[in-house]
Amino acid sequence: MASQLEITGLQVDFGGFKAVNNLSFSVARGELLCLLGPNGAGKSTTLDLICGKTMPTGGRIAFEGEDITFLPEYKRARCGVGRKFQVPSVFKELTVGENMEVARSQRSGLMATLRIFASDMNGPIKGILQRVGLFELRKEKAANLSHGQTQWLEIAMLLAQNSKLLLMDEPTAGMTIQETQKTAEIFNALKGEHTIIVVEHDMQFVRKVAERVTVLNQGSVLAEGSIAEIETNAAVKIAYLGH
Ligand code: ADP
Ligand code: MG
Fold first, then answer.
1. CB count in 10 Å sphere of residue 233
2. Which range of residues forms the domain containing residue 121?
3. Residues surrounding ion ligand 2 at CB below 5 Å
4. Is ligand 1 within 6 A of the CB of residue 55?
5. Where residue 216 sits, what CATH number does that domain have?
6. How far is CA 216 from each of CA 227, 236, 239, rounded to the nearest angstrom?
7. Given the CA of residue 48, which atom of ligand 1 is nearest to it?
8. Which tens digits make up the pLDDT trace of 13-51?
9. Among residues 106, 110, 166, 208, which is most buried (max CB within 10 A)?
10. What is this model's ipTM?
């Protein structure tokens, strides 16, 4: 099967420094790929390049067969590329349900209409909130959610925008053990239907969700394979430990 996302020879140059350097990898539809690598390896920059927050200085990004290399961020979002940032972008003064309405109205490219809304939650939003375990909290203000619940709301908002490819940068950072476990369950339920690229340091979490991992170092792929293969890879040990 053809890959959903194909990255070929990608490069970005920040004033002479190549944060991403001849990077190539691909992801199949419905796959969950974990991106690993030491600090500064270029993981976040790679997600920035895929979602269009940063434009590359070389290489190509194809999504569902279409060249999106230089497409503006909002157009990629409409194609189904959804990026979750480390700092959640939920509206704290709105309820969970209202946040979902805003996300849905963004999907169609309309200005968000902040209408008062709560009880007559329609089908797709209800289903999405149930998938992330937030339906019971639909009338709660986002400001009152726990850290983990806020992250799940943001994932739900990406789903409400019809994101097919979910880009997640360290989603479990700051989560409790229970929240991390729940996040693994959510990801496992979403993959298959959605493609997920997740940057994550917590190897226990990675083991629970990923079949395949890609290790970046100095802006390119250092190693790819199963978690067992990566953990015994000598080059990976050197990149992380320096010996
Ligand atoms: P990671 O997420 O793997 O820790 P990043 O992708 O954030 O790494 O950064 C990769 C490298 O690029 C780092 O050395 C970082 O300092 C540098 N970098 C990231 N963004 C910029 C930028 N806008 N300008 C200059 N250097 C940057
Ligand atoms: Mg990062």
1. 16
2. 3-241
3. 43-44
4. no
5. 3.40.50.300
6. 14, 9, 9
7. 6
8. 999 999 999 999 999 999 999 999 999 999 999 999 999
9. 166
10. 0.98
